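User: I'm putting together a teaching handout on how multi-component assemblies are represented. Below are the sequence lines for each component of a complex, exactly as they appear in our records. Could you produce the 3D structure of the whole assembly as structure tokens, so the students can see both representations side by side? Please keep the chain order the same as the input.
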Amino acid sequence: MTDSQLAWKNLWRNRKRTVITAASIFFAVFFALLMRSFQLGAYDRMFRNIIESYTGYLQIQHRDYFDEPIIDNSFELTPRVTEKIYSDPNVNTLVPRLESFALAADESRTQGVMVLGIDPEGEEKVTGLKSKLVKYKLTPESIAALKRSSIPDRTKKLLDVFLNESYSSEGRLMLDLNISQDDSADILPVLRRSASFRNEYLDINETDGALIGNGLSDYLKAEIGDTIVLVGQGYHGTSAAGKFVVRGIVRLPAPDIDNIIVYLPITGAQELFAAPSMVTSAVLKLVNNDDENVLQTGNNISKQLEQPLAIRTWHEMNALLINQLEADNRSGMIMIGILYLVIAFGVFGTVLMMIAERKREFGMLVSIGMRKRKLAKIVSLEMVLIGILGLAAGVVASLPFVFYGNSHPIRFTGEMGRMYSDYGFEPVMPTLLPDTYYLSQIVVVLIILLVAILFCVRKIFRINVINALRA
Amino acid sequence: MAVVQINNVYKAYHDTEVEVKAINGVTLSFEKGDFAVVVGPSGSGKTTLLNLIGGLDQPTGGEILVAGHRLSELRPSELIDFRMEHVGFVFQSYNLIPVLTAAENVSFIMNLQKWPKEKRKVRTDELLSSVGLSDRHNSRPSQLSGGQQQRVAVARALATHPEFILADEPTANLDSKSAESLLDIMEKLNHEEQMTFIFSTHDIRVMKRAHRVITLEDGKVISDELSF
Ligand SMILES: Nc1ncnc2c1ncn2[C@@H]1O[C@H](COP(=O)(O)OP(=O)(O)OP(=O)(O)O)[C@@H](O)[C@H]1O
Ligand SMILES: [Mg+2]
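Assistant: Of course. Below is the structure of the complete assembly, with chains in the same order as your input.
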């Protein structure tokens, strides 16, 4: 009979208690892991969404541009710089941007706008701008055509609600018109025929082309093919003015940007602002986006950059969002803390009960010559077994859910779905695959277990055999 | 040489407001092969005396020598080892480890002493048949009667040939028939293995089975008689 055999047998002397204790640890671990997985998955997704649709993981800027984002703090993206950046094997693409402000005027209205000069093909690779082009618009004509078509009445009724609404994704359109995944095969072809929006993307060689935000297009009443005039201040105080033809309309997630955004080919923007070959930032698309790799690439490039250039990480560029999510994260941690507190009390209750119940037995064992250290070892083993059993079961049971939740993320519908779609994100909430957060949960449980064991061991070393035998 | 030598031993408890002299100047010795019972009214100090002899408790005065060990000189952890090596215990109840079978309980101390497996098995078989339980090897304590449990406890106490076996009211929870048969077995083992038994009781019938009767009153030995 080894100590571990005896411990194992002791485990099953009070089957119910062992099962309840292990089960409580199991559920705590299981739910804590799932909760973390969903929460961290949502954060991860949100960051990637924002990073991948706008800031990118790393940017190169003039060192003053971060604090004072004006065109005078732009820099020249020389082949020398480009070469250095591409020398890092983790860099896939580098896209230049020239960002500034201007007044945009159509026939009757003017509006302060944000002008973003881009490399159309590069930008598509890095932020997928093409996907934000309006693909459907429910114009009065298209609604009339749709009402005559064979689509279900349920959908027809909704059409008027969304008059003049534009869509960059079929997903959002389906949500608005309450089209289920099953019906989509029948309805989408009809929609494509009747409500498609003809749009073009920018061409780097057509320096007078422009893409404008859907909100801006509505305000200026600027349609495809219309000419808008941009007036503003150029590089180092020169005056800037130019005429541009609207080639396409994009629908951007954030309304405050959608209402003021004008994309130009970067050459056109440089011409407009009299800043030839200048850029305000260069966005890097990386091969590997893991935190570690991003950091390493950032450091690597930072070392090679010469004044006045500086590298900016997505952390710096999204500080506000990171703060918000950290606050949210804290509340999640508190929830889990409470969960574990309950479990800790449960485990301690069990331990106290167990010790009280076995006091006589412990007294007897020490009396007949079992060393307290050996007894403590056996009882600790029992607790480790229960703890590990619950912990391992919790971890194992969470895995299928976490992996499934990652490959088949929860899909939002309704308001939540709309919100996500509006932000240009796929309305899904994937779980985060096991990562360091698994480790920290495991460590927390092990710490609770350790404290309970230490408590128990202390009790055993303080056993007074005479009292224990009289108990 | 005496197995146990008790010289002018005192044990006082100060837990309560008044000091309780549970053992009040006892001098006794036990020889190998003794079959001695300690009797006396409740509170006379029987349990206290047995605990002192067994090294479960330390006297407040005097000295106790067991097999050449001066118990007061042993550190707490040494006392535990001392008990494992030299003393067999049978308690009134809760003697056995509930999750182990009768055989496993009997071999428990042999296990602590790291006897080789084969030797353990031989001794366990021998003892279980000695106490009339050769057919109950694999029974758990909960499947045994109170008397059978006490017999297993005696077998366990005896297994590693201690200097003596201490039994504080071993029959207190038994009916008279079971008590008789337990005493039969103890007497047989006393005879067969030359094992020294020191036990206490309230029961006149049990008392009559002893070969030596020590009577305590208020922590003092008032008589010490041989009775065959
Ligand atoms: N741990 C203790 N603390 C304080 N007093 C104690 C303690 N143990 C025993 N006593 C006292 O010592 C005296 C002797 O007690 P002991 O248990 O040895 O008597 P006993 O002869 O075994 O009695 P019983 O026949 O009822 O078992 C009693 O007055 C008892 O109250
Ligand atoms: Mg007593």
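A couple of points students might notice: The first strand of chain A starts at residue 58 and ends at 62. The pocket of magnesium ion (ligand 2) is lined by residues B 46-47, 168 (CB under 6 Å).
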